[in-house]
Description:
By secondary structure, the chain is an alpha/beta fold. The protein is 34% helix and 20% strand. The strands form three sheets. Strands 4-3-7-8 form a four-stranded parallel sheet, with helices on both faces. A two-stranded antiparallel ribbon has the order 1-2. Strands 5-6 form a two-stranded antiparallel ribbon. The model is unreliable at 1-32 (pLDDT under 50).
Amino acid sequence: xxxxxxxxxxxxxxxxxxxxxxxxxxxxxxxxxxxxxxxxxxxxxxxxxxxxxxxxxxxxxxxxxxxxxxxxxxxxxxxxxxxxxxxxxxxxxxxxxxxxxxxxxxxxxxxxxxxxxxxxxxxxxxxxxxxxxxxxxxxxxxxxxxxxxxxxx
Length: 153
């Protein structure tokens, strides 16, 4: 990430690709140079259009993520997705991912577990290049057999 400074979520990366990004890229791309994985990592770290599925005006993860992007000086397009809003933090909101015209590089999915598969299906239909999911209801609670089963599926 030469000559790029990115701030948000308490992280600042300047002057060069971070060790974390390089290790992630090298691991995902592997020795064969899988171009689809390289493209997914590029979409994750250099997204021009970011859809936030579950975007909200209410305080929470999705709201915090959108605010961090704005505060951090993100220059790409933020595309909030939530059928309950016309706008979220000043950006036009879309009822569904399918309503968004053009490509979406990255979808940040902040939805309850019951909607995660629906969201992933929408991302696949849309051709979203990378997905970052924040969801609860899996195996994060010790002894939650149902959540563990969902995670293992």
